[in-house]
Amino acid sequence: MAISDLAAELGVSRATIRSRLERLVASGEILGFTVVLRGDATEMPVRGITLIEIEGKGNERIVSRLRGFPEIQTIHSTNGRWDLIVEFGTETLADLDEALKRLRLIDGIVASETSLYLATQRSSKASASASRSPG
Question: Model-level pTM greater than 0.90?
Answer without folding.
Answer: no
